[in-house]
Amino acid sequence: MYGFESLTNGIIANWPYWFVSIVLVVAAVIDGVQLKVPNWITFPMIITGWIYSAVAYAMAGDAWWAGLGWSLAGTAVGLLLLLPAYAIGGMGAGDVKLLAGVGAWTYVVTTFYAFCLSAVIGAAIAVIMVLARRGVRKHSMQFMMILNEITEVRNPETLAALAAKRKSQMLLLPYGIPIAIGTIAYFAWVGLLV
User: Are 122 and 185 in contact (CB under 8 A)?
Assistant: First the structure.
């Protein structure tokens, strides 16, 4: 009985991380099916993170604007970490906003480490997808071409246009899935879910 009570108390104490985890799972499923994370998930996630942070700080006797500030900083980090990939056409806007939503709820440090783990998981999933389709040579050549474009072109608009032309031939990874797996795994690893 003590174990169940302890688990329940841990879930209640860490409900914001459970909320974020549930939102991430829903977003990952939708992204897996539609290759898009919809705004009706990302914008409310970001805004409620700002509201939660302001209210939680105020209820704890601290300045509400400090909580809002930490939430805004986390949102900015989430945006900035994925914005370069989005700018060159390598990622959808929904994925960027999803990580911004994680930042709105969990702030700078947690968002950064969740991003790092998500990047590793995303790379692993991409390799598995390529191997499963037996397209190592094709995708290696595409990767080298993209890397060459990034180093030579350096203009985000031109790179985005090149990526748009190439999109129908690319193996697309719904990046909401690695974000969900990486973030939830990080929460579990550092004990934020219990």
Answer: no
Structure letter (DSSP) for residue 168:
G
Cβ 130 vs Cβ 73: under 8 Å: no
Interacting residues of 147 by C-beta distance below 8 A, sequence separation 6+:
none
Share of the chain above pLDDT 90, in %: 64
The encoded tokens of residue 127 equal 């390799």
- pLDDT, tens only, 128-180: 988 888 877 777 777 787 777 778 887 878 877 877 777 777 778 999 999 99
Is the backbone of residue 89 left (phi > 0), alpha (psi -120 to 50) or beta?
left
Q: 14 Cβ partners below 8 Å, 6+ apart?
A: 192, 193, 194
User: What is the spatial distance between Cα 79 and Cα 103, in angstroms, rounded to a whole number?
Assistant: 8
User: Is residue 180 exposed (0-12), middle (13-18) or buried (19+ Cβ within 10 Å)?
Assistant: buried
Distance between first and last Cα of the chain? 16
How many other CB atoms sit within 10 Å of the CB of residue 9? 11
How far is CA 132 from its chain centroid?
24
- pTM equals 0.88
